[in-house]
From TrEMBL:
Family: Belongs to the glycosyl hydrolase 1 family.
Protein name: Uncharacterized protein
InterPro entries in alphabetical order: GH, GH_1_N_CS, Glyco_hydro_1
Pfam families xref list: Glyco_hydro_1 (PF00232)
Keyword Ubl conjugation among UniProt keywords: no
GO molecular function (one): beta-glucosidase activity
Record's signal peptide: 1-27
Keywords, in A-Z order: Hydrolase, Signal
GO biological process, one term: carbohydrate metabolic process
Length: 222
């Protein structure tokens, strides 16, 4: 005897309806709760800077160049008067530098980074006065050169399973070169561009990286 599927259909529809109603209720409560939050500029101390972080591939630059039209962000940033904070190196760089000399494992990367930084200062210095040199170099050293979950994916057992790398020492080489590249870029900025551009190069990330690098060295010696 063929069994009826009607009870199953009714039950399934009931579950779907229940989930939809629950989701609607949660969204409504969340919206109402968020609407009760009243944040004013006066709630924060003088000198507190508000900002948002993004990457070059999330916001297109060079508006109106090579036939490019305005993007919604091009218009929005100019209408709202948003002050840009530019990070010169955010995990990505030309693959050519990796293939040629191993990117941050080589001292050659320092001078190439400074050249790139100078290019940015020359071309965007009249629009940008807040610069950060290298995004979280300590984290990049771990992800790219110790556990290999970020490019260039260099690591060794037991930290990761990569084709190439040495997780014991290569992260130290990479972060060491990042620190020196930062120092050279900062010196260039001070001596050549500071007179024309307000100087606000970020140091906090590099200070943390240096502290973690020191701790890492102590742990490996132990």
């Amino acid at each position: 005897m063929k069994r009826s599927t009607f009870p199953c259909i009714v039950y399934s529809n009931f579950v779907i309806l229940f989930l939809l109603l629950s989701a609607t209720s949660i969204a409504k409560d969340f919206t109402e709760e968020e609407g009760d939050v009243d944040i004013k500029r006066s709630d924060f101390p003088d000198g507190f800077l508000f900002g948002a972080s993004t990457s070059s591939y999330q916001i297109e630059g060079a508006y109106l160049e090579d036939g490019k039209g305005l993007s919604n962000w091009d218009v929005f940033c100019r209408i709202e008067g948003i002050e840009p904070f530019v990070t010169i190196h955010h995990f990505d760089y030309p693959q050519e530098l990796e293939d040629r000399y191993g990117s941050w494992l080589s001292t050659l990367m320092q001078d190439d980074f400074v050249h790139f930084a100078e290019t940015c200062f020359n071309n965007f210095g009249d629009h940008v006065k807040y610069w950060s040199s290298i995004n979280v170099p300590n984290l990049f050293g771990i992800l790219g050169f110790e556990i290999g979950t970020f490019p260039p994916a260099r690591c060794s057992s037991p930290f990761g399973n990569c084709r190439h790398g040495n997780s014991d020492i290569k992260p130290l080489f990479a972060v060491h070169n990042m620190l020196l590249a930062h120092a050279k870029a900062a010196k260039l900025y001070r001596t050549k561009f500071k007179a024309n551009i307000d100087y606000h190069l970020a140091y906090e990330k590099l200070r943390i990286a240096l502290r973690n690098l020191h701790r890492c060295s102590i742990n490996k010696e132990v």
